[in-house]
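Late entry, evening session. Most of the bench is empty. Finally got around to the prediction I had been postponing all week. Sequence below, unchanged from the version circulated by S.P.
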Amino acid sequence: GRASVFGLSVANPPGYQGAHAFTLGEVTVDIDVASLEEQSPIVLDEITIGMPAVFYEMNASGKANVDVLRENASSGSSSSAEETSDPAGEPIRLRIRSLRFEEGQISANARAIGGPEIDAKIGRAELTDVGGAAGATPDEIGVVIVKQLGGQAADAVKDMGRKELDKVIDDNIGGEEGEAVKGLLDRFGR
């Protein structure tokens, strides 16, 4: 079986200006229909998340919205047990053989701390065997997805920030001295 959802969005946590932290243009799920009868776990052969857009925003205290979402996802969920249980009361468990993110983009806004606004593409990512043989609850799968998107966004912002810093060094110092400063930054993990 196959199902698709279009235009899914996740709201920003309180204290951030943008309406959304991220949107997913299309989510397509290929389901191993035979596993629906056994439900231990339900097997999803593939989930493809197309056109994820992350709206990375920092507040005045320097905390990023995606970090808040990742922390909230890790600390638990507000879903009721009824929503994620089968008729016998057992939690529904899912095993995802392949989870892919494709054609992503990020818009980063660090103006609240004097930083820039930046747009960039997010690389393709694939996770395999999410949930393992025993499967994972939908809440646990949600945590994996939020962490993956949040991690990709943080990596992209970090990379963009370094490129901006390198440009400032090149524009203001340049030459061998500029390369020496970049080398020093590399040693300190910047």
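Two things to note before I forget:
The first strand starts at residue 2 and ends at 11.
The chain is about 35% helix and 35% strand.
Will write this up properly tomorrow.
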